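Researcher: Structure prediction, please.
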Amino acid sequence: MSPVHWAPLACAIIYTLAALALQAASMRGLGPWRITFVSNLVMGLLFLPLLALGGRFADGWHPAQPALTGLLFFGGQICTFLALHRGDASVATPVLGSKVLFVTLFTAALGVQEIPGRWWSGAALCTAALVLLGMAPPRHRERTVAAAGFALAAAAFFALTDVLVQRWVPLWGPGRFIPAMFGTVALLSPILIPRFRGPLRTAGIPGVAWLALGSVLLAAQALGMALTLGLFGSAPLVNILYSTRGIWTILVIVAAGAWFGNQEHRLGGRLLGIRALGALLLLAAVAVAIG
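Model: Predicted structure follows.
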């Protein structure tokens, strides 16, 4: 199996564990902005050793490329949290799944690579599957427009980030581009500090431990995705495989959700059935995309 196949699957599993760990930190009083700030700093620091790999400056490189990509990634983070803060997760989460379709569209529009027909089919199936996987009981229907708008913007930002990483990393080499990109994200993060709620000590040692674990895991999967996209390309296929995190999340929640403090395993049978259908549709998307 090629790295373009197994690497995004591994990153999907790591992301699932990272998300549950950060959710556990949030349940202990750590707000989303502080979690984002710490996670971004961890990514910026952990990626610095990649500088030892060196790189190159091939024709077409520009010093603004890593900064622009980092800015898009940071913008995606901001829009994600605004979608969750100003609207329901039941709306925001499925709309965020449209990233797979955006990646395919941007890859074709920018001429990064030719898109096989099976990738278009896989992207469409994947988007539909993620809508089902993200289903949750709506609570505030009047917030739907805000949640959907910010989530759609986040999906577009993250999708364009992936496509540009695929296009620009070969011009720089991963040892230069990736540290510069995530260094930009870390440098932008202090603007989040005014939005922190309460001192860090209110979370206690367990909260800080979950935050540290989640941040390291999040950085690990971000590095894996960046290297996969930069070295092997195929952003649409990589994102279809990476979207299996929706399946892994359900499996981990059912098997060990209580250990993370997650209560979603108590959802009703109808909702779990819908999500199971989404999981099967997602597996079909992966099968179609791989061919």
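Model: The CA atoms of residues 17 and 108 lie 32 Å apart.
Researcher: Thanks, that helps.
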